[in-house]
Design a protein that fits this description.
By secondary structure, the chain is mainly beta. The chain is 10% helix and 38% strand. The chain has helices at 375-379, 409-418, 423-454; strands at residues 15-18, 25-26, 40-42, 46-51, 57-63, 68-69, 77-80, 84-89, 96-101, 105-110, 125-128, 134-139, 143-144, 146-151, 156-160, 165-170, 178-183, 190-194, 198-203, 208-214, 224-227, 233-238, 244-249, 259-264, 270-275, 280-285, 290-296, 303-310, 317-320, 332-339, 343-350, 366-367, 373-374, 388-389. The strands form 9 sheets. Strands 1, 2, 6, 29, 30 and 31 form a 6-stranded mixed β-sheet that branches. A 4-stranded antiparallel β-sheet has the order 3-4-5-7, with no helix packed on it. Helix 2 (409-418) packs antiparallel against helix 3 (423-454). The N and C termini lie far apart (101 Å).
Length: 455
């Protein structure tokens, strides 16, 4: 009888630990919406959560150190007229957050360093282009001020946020509701999963489908898809018998999964979070009380089960801290912000090590906040690799890049002339704006003449 050999891994003994009650965020009315988004987003400065609000949609933004009981009168961000469905911090500026809502709009907000003193009702930019509710938001990982939104109108829009413009509109690629949409590591591709039982790899600037896979999971319940290392794709979904599954795919050969594993028979959608530095993927089920984690490697069966963090209370949503917000001197490799009915509880994932020295194998250089390409240049075809930073001495926040909104014709001209390689798109944008202004002037002239003839 052959003896089973346990696979060696430095993440085999990763353990999760919930922080003490005084380090949680209490008495927050988390949204009761049944939408399958994370409901929470975090960065090294703030934690933001979607909350219940009367007469519209709102989310609350708290500085990380503002723990304990949160007063009912604490200011919210409440500019939407319908419930907020998704929120996402900008990876290049820790003070900028985007929100998508049932009112079909996307709004961009700026949060002061010290947090909110009064409720915020006026956004920096309002992006309108969807005809149904907007449930998915994702910032470009390397290009400055590029945001992707996906709505229940089966449309994906890529925005130049600083200009408030929809630059790319993908409205024919999906035949049903989009369940998930994300970028690859350098933002040259988009991956979506849809109710039409397909996952698609898209070229974001050409708005074309590069490849697609029909029925990655046989079941009819929602599928989530994310990129992992080496361009591979990890999906979570359901079998025909409603068993939850996780699968790994090679997009160059979609005919068969590299691996497909059945997990359990729970009904909650699995939200996957991938750490490219360690190759560990965390699966957090909505309505579950556990977080499973797996290591993704190049050797079969490719997705190796590591362990599971369990607690008593189920999760309504989950926020995932970027690597630069972790305490590296405590060997913390991940931190989650778990939403309960009335509170947010941080959960720390740690690799047990005896040494207090910096562990280079656990913390290779990671993605920093500096963008590598500007929006106009990216839409013109220029790509940018992620700019990496070392966490050896801990992450020190530098002054974020100022968020500038280009509103006037003069500002557009200035921006175009200062752009190095985005001249053509700048001229086109200028021409479009001139055309719009002419149309507005013609409309106003027409109205004036109508009023004059009536009087």
């Amino acid at each position: 009888m052959s003896q089973r050999v346990v696979r060696a891994s430095k993440f085999r003994h990763v353990f999760g630990k919930a922080l003490k009650a005084d380090q949680c965020y209490d008495d927050i009315r988390i949204s009761q919406m049944t939408w399958d988004s994370n409901f929470c987003t975090v960065n090294p400065k703030f934690v933001a959560m979607i909350v219940d609000a009367s007469g519209g949609g709102a989310f609350i933004v708290l500085p990380l150190n503002k723990t304990g009981r949160i007063d009912m009168s604490y200011p919210n961000v409440c500019g939407h007229t319908g419930p907020v469905l998704d929120i996402e911090w900008c990876p290049h500026n820790d003070n900028i957050i985007a929100s998508g809502s049932e009112d079909c709009s996307v709004m961009i907000w700026e949060i002061p360093d010290s947090g909110l003193v009064t409720s915020l009702t006026t956004p920096l930019v309002k992006l309108e282009g969807h005809s149904k509710r907007v449930g998915i938001l994702s910032w470009h990982p390397t290009a400055h001020n590029v945001l992707m939104s996906a709505g229940c109108d089966n449309v994906v829009i890529l925005w130049n946020v600083a200009r408030g413009e929809a630059v790319v509109r993908m409205d024919t690629q999906h035949t049903d509701v989009i369940y998930s949409a994300c970028w690859n590591r350098d933002g040259t591709q988009i991956l979506t999963s849809s109710k039409d039982k397909k996952i698609r790899v898209l070229d974001p600037r050409k708005a074309t489908v590069i490849s697609e896979k029909d029925k990655p999971h046989e079941g009819s319940r929602p599928v989530r898809a994310i990129y992992v290392n080496d361009g591979k794709i990890l999906t979570t979904g359901f079998s025909r018998m409603s068993e939850r599954q996780v699968a790994l795919w090679d997009p160059s050969n979609f005919s068969e999964a590299l691996t497909l594993q059945e997990l359990d028979t729970s009904s909650g959608v699995l939200l996957p979070f991938f750490d490219p530095d360690t190759g560990v993927v965390y699966l957090c089920g909505k309505g579950d009380s556990s977080i499973r984690y797996f290591e993704v490697t190049d050797e079969a069966p490719y997705v190796h089960y590591l362990s599971m963090y369990s607690s008593k209370e189920s999760q309504k949503g989950m926020g995932y801290m970027p690597k630069r917000g972790l305490e590296v001197n405590k060997c913390e490799i991940a931190r989650f912000f778990k939403l309960h009915e009335r509170k947010c509880e941080p959960i720390v994932m740690t690799v047990p090590r005896k040494s207090d020295l910096f562990q280079e194998d656990l913390f290779p250089d990671t993605i920093g906040p500096e963008p590598s390409v500007e929006a106009d240049d990216w839409f013109n075809g220029k790509d940018g690799k992620p700019i990496l930073i070392s966490l050896k001495d801990g992450y020190v926040a530098s002054k974020p890049k100022e968020f500038k909104v280009i509103k006037s014709l003069m500002a557009t001209t200035t921006s175009c002339s200062s752009s190095n390689s985005g001249g053509d798109s700048g001229v086109q944008a200028l021409q479009a704006e001139v055309k719009e202004l002419k149309a507005t002037i013609e409309e106003l002239t027409k109205r004036v003449s109508e009023l004059e003839s009536k009087s």
